[in-house]
Amino acid sequence: MKIKPLNRIKAVLAEENKTNKWLAEILGKNVTTVSRWCTNENQPALETLIEIAKALNIDVRELIASTNTVTIVKSIDK
């Protein structure tokens, strides 16, 4: 069973044309640590997510993957 991503750090970095290395330098973290966040192997603390959002000048909610899934069912009348 595949684990669903809990954060969108990798996607947001790509959208902002930023790299893991850039984020690691801004936060004073190891590049390996940031890489693990980006692959959802590990999760940053809430305080760190807030720091990431500030560095990227975005709302922290943009870093969190939605757990809501919407299924649309179309009924076909015969």
Automatic annotation (TrEMBL):
It comes from the Bacteria. This is XRE family transcriptional regulator. One of its GO terms (molecular function) is DNA binding. Residues 23-63 form the HTH cro/C1-type domain. PROSITE patterns: HTH_CROC1. Signal peptide: none annotated. It holds the Pfam family HTH_3. CDD domains: HTH_XRE. InterPro entries: Cro/C1-type_HTH, Lambda_DNA-bd_dom_sf.
